[in-house]
Design brief:
A hairpin with a 2-residue loop joins strand 7 and strand 8. Strands 10, 11, 12, 13, 14, 15, 16, 17, 18, 20, 22, 23 and 24 form a 13-stranded mixed sheet that branches. Strands 3, 4, 6, 7, 8 and 9 form a six-stranded antiparallel sheet that branches. A three-stranded antiparallel sheet has the order 1-2-5, with no helix packed on it. The chain is an all-beta fold. The protein is elongated and about 115 Å long.
Length: about 325
Amino acid sequence: VVYEKLDGESVAVVDVNASLASGSTGNITYQWYVNETEFKGTGSGSYKIILTQSDLTTTEGKNWEYSGQVYCKLSYNNYTVNTDTVAVTVNTCTHAKYTHDGKCQQCGEPCRAEVLFIDKDGLPYSSELDGGEAMVGSKLISGGTFYFVRDIDAILRAGDDGTNKKDLTLDLQGHKVKNLDLQNFPYNSVTIKNGTINIFGTSAPAVFILDSVTTNADYFSNWCTLTVKGDCVFENQVAFHGKTQLQGGTFQNGIMKTDAPPLALLADGYAFADADSNDILNISDVNIENRNVKVVGHTCQYHNGKCVCGRICDHAGKVDKDGYCTFCKALVE
């Protein structure tokens, strides 16, 4: 059975391969049956028939699907034999909208192989490559969440008119993007989550949120306002020069020293830990430039104004009438 389009209509082509033994003469007679009824349509009497939806029965509960049980009776002289019965299903669904994982919301059929992502309205988007690049900015500037349904080994150019900036989320859904160039960054913010992105960047000030992505990015300029959370993995040693809030992430080759001390990179309620031992690191004393570290949730417990994570309470404006710090509870001399 082969399914194809004929004059824009979905059809099924069914054929049988039969031949006479060497030395026999005459012709084989073909008689086709669909749902136990003799077929009189296109190709009846020949080795190949074409079935349209009118030749089949509507599948119960699926008004876009037509099916039938098909076999052929072969006759030669006084001999007859029936072929095996095959199930034929013709799908006429228009695939108007798709689920986030790229399956038709109505019939469940997967989207075309060239589709790159599904937008927030369930519409598929196919990228056309030109010299290893695809222009996707005109689609992404509408904002919302876009769900990737395959890997792409190309540069995605995502700049456009930035007069109506919106929040954009790229849910990679476990897929890999080679390179994302946000060019003039026509967005309010961009969240990248749940996948692998080798390189991403922008030529303008940008707000990024990375959530559970793996990347080999190693430099974030002072143009970049960055939040890292979830199970992010930075494969290279990385330098953060802009406003940074770390709420998660593993840094396999550490974090480079910049003008900001490492503690300043951490969001409240988080600390650095050794990625192998899980021990909280006193970041005031430990060098994490070439160390496999991760960011974990942490509640500070102060002893003499100091916590094991390296934070120090300065007691400023927090001393009660008895001389105790109301924040860390230390007795202030």
